[in-house]
Every structure is written in structure tokens, then in C-alpha cells.
């Protein structure tokens, strides 16, 4: 007691302050440690419009490298986009991977994506992503006409040629498919609704056959059920691989700048409602890295969006396709396209 009584009050106050400061430091350290542990990401939820067969091997690689579990909900891109729009800010999804730009645009239009910062996916050209980087392109696919060269001796120069009598009862389309709907949206935006309605009506009058998906169209051509169909470029390769043999189907291209040569992209966006955005961006970086992009080409026959990576075997480069100049942003107007398909009786 005597020792303490000889110490000035000011010094005692300083000691108390130092002690309190030390205690505060310890509490801050413990709080920070707990906070870091609480925010340690162990899993992500992704809505995938790419099929499980297509994308699961790539997800598996990332899970093994990162140690983070991916909870994947697979489905049609347009249906998953509608689901996210319904869920809004309460969506459990951290990311949305779509097989087409239109479905991504619908989400972006409602401001449900968090813009992807520079430094992420920087090797992807801006023309294959949303202007404000709400979403980033992952791979490219080209619209083509698949056909049996033994049965189709005169190939079409334009999509308008498909209404001619030489293709009567020979053409197949997949109106429920997101890629077909994105293509049709481009036609509406470029040529107008009236032109597109007449084109679809003329196709019906010419006996167009409807299939559920692109691969079914290619299989039907190989079987001789139809002779020509509108699909994405990789389905001829995919069906051939699945059957383990060459098939009687090849890809054809319309004249340069025809809408039938549309280049669309699969792409990915991070939901603004996600609390795991930094980890989600790690997955975006993985999918757009040169090594993964090269693997997309070799394993799936899709195009890389990195210009220095060669196109799939026996296919022209994207610059050689003769694609029309269509801003991918317009492909978001998918609802009007679906309404038109319903109106003409194709949905």
C-alpha cells in the first residue's frame, strides 16, 4: 500500500490505460481470429446451365485444387435465369454459369450481378463479356447448319433459304433450346419482329421438324429422319464421340455476316447477394485461365475466347466464321422471343 501511495496519480492512470490497451488488443486479436474462421469459405453454390456431363470434370479439378465444395444445381439456362429472377436478392446461388449470353443478360438487366473487377479474367476480350463486366464469357460456340452431305446437294446461303421447297420436310430445329432462342433473339433485333414471325411461319409451312435439343437433331440427321438442322458447332463432334464412330453429318456455314453464323458465348456471373464473392471470383479466374481454356477446346470442342489458343480440330477460327456483328447485350430480350415462338405455335 505504501509503495502505491508514493506513485503519482498520473502514473497510475497511465498504467491503467496501458493495461486497458493491452486487454483491448487481446480482445481485438481474438475477435479478428474468430471472424476469419467464421468467414472461411468451405463451399459455393452455383447454378449451372451447362450440363453436368460437360462442366462437372472442370468443377472437380477446381474443387481438388481449392479444397472448396461446389453445390451445383443443373438445369436449362433460361429456366435457371428465371429462378434467380424469382429469388432476387434471396437467391442461394453465389454464381450463375449460363450456356448463352441471353440468360446472363436477363440477370444483369435486373442488377443482380456484382460487376467483376479488373484483374479477373483479363484475357477474355471485352466483346465476349457484358460491357460493365457484370458477366464474363467463358467459351464460344458458333451457330451452324448440320447436314448430311449425301442428301443435301445444295446448301443454303442464308437462313432465308431454309424456307425453300428443296428443304421441305428436311429441316430440324429445337425451339425450347436456349441457344436457338438466343439466335432467334438476334434475328428479331436485327431484322424485326415481323420478319422473324414470317420466317418462322414459313418454316412451319415448309414442314420443319421440332426436336427437344441439338444433339437429338444431329442424331436424327445421322439416322436419316431429317437432312439438315440448326445447331451449335460442337454437336456433330459430341454425337460422334458418344456413338464411338463417324456419323453422316458435317457442319455447314452460311454466307459471311448471315445471322445463321452467330457467335454466342457461355458465360459466368457472381451474384451481388453472395457473401462469398472473392472465392467466387477465384472460380471465374480458373475457368478463364489459359490452361482451363485449352482443356475446354480439347475436351469439349468448344472455342476458347483467348485469341492465342487454337480452335478445335478441323474448325475455322472465330475470325474466319463470317459471324454477323451482333452485340451480345441484345440477346437478353429472350422473353419476347419466347412469346413469339408461342404465338406461331413452336413452343
From TrEMBL:
Alphabetical list of Pfam families matching this protein: SBP_bac_6
Gene Ontology cellular component terms for the protein in this record: outer membrane-bounded periplasmic space
Keyword terms: Signal
Entry-linked InterPro entries: Ferric-bd
PANTHER family noted in UniProt: IRON-UTILIZATION PERIPLASMIC PROTEIN (PTHR30006:SF15), THIAMINE-BINDING PERIPLASMIC PROTEIN-RELATED (PTHR30006)
Family: Belongs to the bacterial solute-binding protein 1 family.
Protein name per Swiss-Prot or TrEMBL: Unannotated protein
Organism: freshwater metagenome
Amino acid at each position: 500500500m505504501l509503495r502505491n501511495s508514493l506513485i503519482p496519480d498520473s502514473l497510475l492512470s497511465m498504467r491503467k490505460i496501458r493495461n486497458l490497451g493491452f486487454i483491448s488488443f487481446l480482445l481485438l486479436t481474438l475477435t479478428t481470429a474468430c471472424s476469419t474462421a467464421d468467414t472461411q469459405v468451405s463451399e459455393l453454390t452455383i447454378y449451372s446451365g451447362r450440363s453436368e456431363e460437360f462442366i462437372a470434370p472442370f468443377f472437380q479439378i477446381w474443387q481438388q485444387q481449392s479444397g472448396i465444395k461446389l453445390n451445383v444445381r443443373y438445369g436449362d439456362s433460361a429456366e435457371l435465369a428465371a429462378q434467380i429472377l424469382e429469388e432476387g436478392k434471396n437467391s442461394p446461388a453465389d454464381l450463375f454459369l449460363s450456356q448463352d449470353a441471353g440468360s446472363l443478360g436477363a440477370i444483369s438487366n435486373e442488377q443482380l450481378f456484382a460487376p467483376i473487377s479488373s484483374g479477373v479474367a483479363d484475357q477474355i476480350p471485352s466483346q465476349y463479356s457484358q460491357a460493365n463486366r457484370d458477366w464474363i464469357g467463358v467459351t464460344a460456340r458458333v451457330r451452324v447448319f448440320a447436314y448430311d452431305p449425301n442428301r443435301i446437294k445444295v446448301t443454303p446461303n442464308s437462313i432465308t433459304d431454309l424456307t425453300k421447297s428443296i428443304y421441305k420436310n428436311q429441316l430440324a430445329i429445337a425451339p425450347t433450346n436456349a441457344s436457338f432462342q438466343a439466335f432467334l433473339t438476334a434475328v428479331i433485333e436485327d431484322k424485326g419482329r415481323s420478319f422473324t414471325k414470317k420466317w418462322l411461319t414459313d418454316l412451319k409451312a415448309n414442314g420443319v421438324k421440332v426436336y427437344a435439343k441439338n444433339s437429338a437433331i444431329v442424331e436424327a440427321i445421322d439416322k436419316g429422319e431429317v437432312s439438315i438442322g440448326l445447331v451449335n458447332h460442337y454437336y456433330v463432334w459430341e454425337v460422334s464421340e458418344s456413338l464411338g464412330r463417324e456419323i453422316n453429318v458435317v457442319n455447314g456455314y452460311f454466307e459471311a455476316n448471315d445471322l445463321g453464323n452467330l457467335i454466342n458465348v457461355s458465360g459466368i456471373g457472381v451474384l451481388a447477394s453472395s457473401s462469398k464473392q472473392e472465392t467466387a471470383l477465384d472460380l471465374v479466374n480458373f475457368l478463364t485461365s489459359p490452361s482451363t481454356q485449352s482443356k475446354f477446346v480439347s475436351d469439349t470442342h468448344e472455342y476458347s475466347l483467348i485469341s492465342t489458343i487454337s480452335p478445335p480440330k478441323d474448325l475455322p477460327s472465330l475470325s474466319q466464321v463470317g459471324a454477323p456483328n451482333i452485340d451480345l447485350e441484345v440477346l437478353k430480350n429472350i422473353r419476347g422471343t419466347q412469346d413469339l415462338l408461342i404465338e406461331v405455335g413452336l413452343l
